[in-house]
Write a structure and sequence with these properties.
Subcellular location: Cell membrane
Shape: elongated
Structural class: alpha+beta
Radius of gyration: 48 Å
Organism: Cohnella faecalis
CATH topology of the largest domain: Heat Shock Protein 90
Distance between the termini: 77 Å
Helix content: 40-55%
CATH class of the largest domain: Alpha Beta
Number of domains: 4
Largest sheet: 5 strands, parallel
Catalytic activity: ATP + protein L-histidine = ADP + protein N-phospho-L-histidine
CATH architecture of the largest domain: 2-Layer Sandwich
GO biological process, one term: regulation of DNA-templated transcription
GO molecular function: ATP binding; DNA binding; phosphorelay sensor kinase activity
Number of strands: 21
Length: 695
């Protein structure tokens, strides 16, 4: 006769499974924890194993690995962990089938027959999913395309595996979220679009004739998208804006510089022209009180003009005391239509230099002096275009500005590039986190203080979020297990009675167990409702004046009566002086009873509890509840007030939702007090409840 080993810590459920298995003609053995399962398997070598995951001692995964290390015995997982990722993990570990709770006992028996009909499996199994050149290796959880491995996040792998298990089927976002992300997922359905987008990118070179992930409008994953906003990269945006700002700034500086240089040049050349006219007036006198123009006056003008750095050509006319000019030098016409001002008429004699602007010319009249009296005059007409000609300076300015602009653009380009690198890596890390992969790394060798602090903070946040995500998944799995297990037990027990798998006294016993499981489920649902009502603010607390000494004595007395047969000793340390506090007596009793129950559960036998009352400060009274139990492991102390959290030892030995301490702390805060873990060690644990004094 083939034997079936049932590894299930829930007594009611294991008895239901055993009844159906025996009725199907199998021999049956029940194990309550993982350690017993390992020993029984090594000793009995059963034909098939029905295995739960959350077990006292070794968990289901450890038992499965032990079985696979020694045997190819078929294993069917029976667990409340129904997420696709959990099912994939179970199959990858070597399970032959995976049945989530609650389940039909008849279906379990049918699956047992189906698994046993399969040919014996090899210990070295290479389970794969193959679609042409696309392959998923289930054992290594690796995706291959054309022989090359692809980098896929665990969540994307779960989605890809689900789609591969259901080819040629259409699923909408809600269905995919429920099957892959889980029913407890409270994020945006945009995660489905992003995951599909990433998978399509990874499978870009997958031949369409072999397979593809297709989106159907209105039926499956929607392919409708809003008009995308074209966003420029940080490098191009900053570079463009900087170059534009730099261009405007340099252009302004260049124009101002040109105007300033032009003004200074005109001023300097006017001064040089005055000096030139004075030297020329001395050159045309003969020293006897009359004007005598030398024969080399033209050559002298050219030499002296170069000496004074006067560009271009200008007209020069020398007048004596008569009306007619004695020397005329005309400037060449520069452009058609231009003309030299009329200076043929004799100017009025004066002993001072006179200047004037006539049309486009600068006219300077310098007196020719002899014995401190004017004997004639020199009239110079200089084109303003020649006077302000600074072409070489303009070229120099433009060259300098272009070099400055190019240098500035190069600097900002490389600065932006270096600044962009950690930001791009940060963005990639955020995309991984959005996909559910919290094991990200960002560069930490960054010289800029602000960016370094940002990256360090992000790394810390990612690690914290990863821890919280793991904790959330574990806690929800625990809560799901606690709720599904009674449901599965009740269903199986009643089904066994109805199908007459058990009869007479055993049937009555099954019904009694069903009622007990119903009460257990009812208590958990009540706890959930109370917790949610209080968390949403639907329940208020009173603010009464309370004598804590009397209240604690009464609580200790009533609680000790309930558990005096278990060997639990309760001592009360109340000061003689009354300690009056403000709060809700019933809520204080809830907190105290929850802490007392936790201490009792930690003993696992005899133990003592001390309830002490003292003054903590001028504003608070302190209630301390200490026990001499084994204490809380240091790794768990930071999480004990988390919702749905239960320690490893308590999770596997005591049922519950893990809301007690969370609810108690919320009650304490609502009464303007605090609830803290004061100390915990292998010698005992102490909780501290602070309540405001009555002033």
């Amino acid at each position: 006769m083939q034997s079936i080993m049932i590894v299930e810590d829930e007594e009611a459920l294991s008895r239901v499974l055993a009844a159906y298995v025996r009725k199907a003609g199998f021999d049956c053995r029940i194990c309550r924890d993982g350690n017993e399962a390992v020993e029984s398997f090594d000793a009995a070598q059963p034909s098939l194993v029905l295995l739960d995951v959350l077990l006292p001692g070794r968990n289901g995964w450890e038992v499965l690995r032990h079985i696979r290390s020694k045997s190819a015995c078929p294993v069917i997982m029976l667990t409340a962990m129904s997420d696709v990722g959990d099912r994939i993990a179970g199959l990858n570990e070597g399970a032959d089938d995976y049945i989530p709770k609650p389940f039909e006992p008849d279906e379990v028996v049918a699956r047992i027959h189906a698994v046993l009909r399969r040919p014996p499996r090899s210990l070295v199994s290479s389970e794969q999913v193959v679609f042409g050149s696309f392959r998923i290796d289930l054992k290594s959880r690796t995706v291959f395309l054309n022989g090359a491995s692809l980098s896929v996040t665990p969540r994307d792998l779960a989605l890809l595996m689900f789609l591969a298990e259901h080819p040629n089927q259409i699923f909408n976002r809600e269905q995919l979220i429920e099957k892959v992300w889980g029913i407890d997922y409270d994020g945006s359905d945009r995660a489905v679009d992003l995951a599909i987008k990433r998978l399509r990118k990874q499978l870009l070179h997958w031949p369409p004739e072999e397979g593809e992930i297709r989106t159907l409008r209105g039926t499956g994953i929607s392919s409708m998208r809003t008009s995308p906003i074209r966003r420029r990269t940080l490098l191009s945006r900053w570079t463009f804006r900087y170059v534009l700002t730099l261009f405007i700034g340099l252009l302004t500086i260049g124009l101002a510089s040109i105007l300033w240089i032009r003004q200074e040049t005109v001023h300097d050349r006017k001064q040089s022209l005055r000096e030139f006219s004075q030297v020329a007036s001395q050159y045309v006198t003969d020293g006897k009180g009359s004007i005598a123009v030398p024969k080399d006056f033209y050559e002298w003008i050219d030499r002296t003009q170069r000496l004074y750095q006067l560009p271009g050509q200008f007209s020069l006319t020398v007048f004596d005391r008569g009306d007619a000019p004695v020397f005329i030098k005309k400037a060449p016409l520069i452009a058609a239509g231009s003309s030299t001002p009329n200076i043929d008429s004799k100017p009025v004699l004066t002993d001072r230099i006179q200047t004037a602007r006539t049309g486009g010319h600068y006219v300077l009249i310098a007196p020719v002096m002899s014995n401190h009296s004017p004997i004639g005059s020199i009239v110079i007409a200089y084109s303003y275009s020649d006077l302000a000609n600074v072409n070489q300076n303009y070229v120099l300015i433009v060259s300098l500005l272009l070099c400055a602009g190019l240098l500035g653009w190069t600097i900002i380009y490389f600065l932006s590039w270096n600044l962009r690198k950690p930001i791009v890596q940060l963005s990639e890390a955020l995309n991984k986190m959005e996909a559910g992969d919290y094991k990200v790394t960002v560069p930490d060798r960054v010289k800029e203080k602000e960016i370094h602090e940002l990256l360090v903070s992000f790394q810390t946040m990612a690690a914290r979020l990863g821890t919280l995500e793991e904790l959330r998944t574990e806690l929800l799995a625990g809560v799901t297990h606690e709720l599904k297990t009674p449901v599965a037990s009740i269903h199986g027990l009643i089904r066994a009675v109805r199908d007459q798998v058990v009869t007479d006294r055993e049937a009555e016993e099954f019904l009694d167990i069903s009622l007990e499981q119903t009460r257990r489920l009812q208590n958990m649902v009540t706890d959930l409702l109370d917790f949610n009502s209080f968390a949403s603010g639907a329940i208020s607390v009173r603010q009464d004046s309370i004598d804590l000494g009397k209240l604690l004595s009464e609580i200790a007395y009533q609680w000790e009566l309930l558990y005096q047969e278990e060997g639990v000793e309760v001592a009360v340390d109340i000061p003689e002086r009354a300690c009056m506090a403000v709060g809700d007596a019933s809520r204080i009793q809830q907190i105290a009873v929850n802490l007392l129950n936790n201490s009792r559960q930690a003993f696992q036998g005899r133990g003592s509890i001390v309830i002490a009352l003292s003054e903590h400060s001028e504003k608070f009274c302190e209630i301390s509840i200490r026990d001499d139990g084994p204490g809380i492991p240091e790794a768990e102390q930071a999480h004990i007030f988390e919702r749905y959290y239960r320690g490893e030892s308590k999770k596997l030995s005591i049922g519950g939702l893990g809301l007690g301490l969370t609810y108690s702390r919320m009650l304490a805060i609502a009464m303007k007090g605090e609830l803290n873990l004061k100390i915990s060690s292998p010698k005992g644990t102490a909780f501290q409840l602070l309540l405001p004094k009555q002033l």
